[in-house]
Amino acid sequence: NTQASSARTLKHMAASRPRAKATRKKAPEQGRKHAAFARTRAHILNATMELLGDVGPSATIDQVAAHANVAPSTLYQHFTDRQELFTAALVTGHAQWEEWMLTVVQQVPDDLERVALSGRLFLRASQTHPHYARMAAHSLGALAEQMPLFSRHSGEFIRQLAQKRLIATDRAQQRI
């Protein structure tokens, strides 16, 4: 009976104790530890992209950890919280797609066709980058919030077209 009472008291103390916000571990500067840290981070991001594609933004840290086959504490060594992890996964997924897209569109000589092709490739992402496409479909609101992080190259296309006077230059930022 005293053990049950002690267990309840400890449980109550643990539940009422304020939790400190997780702090991300500083990545080693170089060497094997740096490479291992980078590989683990990339693995976590890939697993998060897959899970966000399958489950959507309702995924939990525990689900991500299980999918990545790492401890939740390992996630917190790389990301301070769930939001930072999910944002990094969205940005990483888009950056991977964008890098691929740029290699495809650079082969097209016409500036306007490059912009149009980039849009068509985005619409076909479910065929070329299925995890990214499903993740983006589940996270359209978050994707829209993060668009300034994504539009680096797309914005540059629009600015180049405006400089060449191939599109109207009024409200260039809105066009981007």
Structural descriptors:
single chain, 12 helices, disordered N terminus, 176 residues
Describe the structure.
With 176 residues, the chain is an all-alpha fold. The chain has helices at residues 2-16, 31-54, 61-68, 72-78, 82-105, 111-123, 125-128, 130-138, 140-145, 147-150, 152-163, 172-175. The radius of gyration is 22 Å and the shape is elongated.
Mean pLDDT across all residues, rounded? Answer: 77
For the largest beta-sheet, the strand count, sense and barrel status come to: none
Low-confidence stretches: 2-14, 16-20
Roughly how many Å apart are the termini? 68 Å
Brief digest:
By secondary structure, this protein is mainly α.
List the helices and strands and how they pair.
Elements: H1 2-16, H2 31-54, H3 61-68, H4 72-78, H5 82-105, H6 111-123, H7 125-128, H8 130-138, H9 140-145, H10 147-150, H11 152-163, H12 172-175
Helix pairs in contact: 2-3, 2-5, 2-8, 5-6, 5-8, 6-11
